[in-house]
Amino acid sequence: LLRINEIFGPTVQGEGSAAGQHCLFVRTALCNLECLWCDTDYTWAFTPSKAARHQSKTVHDRATNIKMMSTEQVLSELRGTWDIFTRPTNIIISGGEPLLQAASLEDLVQVLDQYGNKVHIETAGTIVPTSQLNKYVAQYNVSPKLAHSGNSIVRRYNGEALDYFVNHCRTWWKFVVTCEEDFAEIDLIVGKHNIPPNRVMMMPEGMTIERNLEVARRLADHGLQRGYGISLRTHILLWPDTSRGR
Ligand code: SF4
Question: To test ligand 1's pocket by mutation, which of 3, 28, 38 has the most ligand atoms within 8 angstroms of CB?
Answer without folding.
Answer: 38
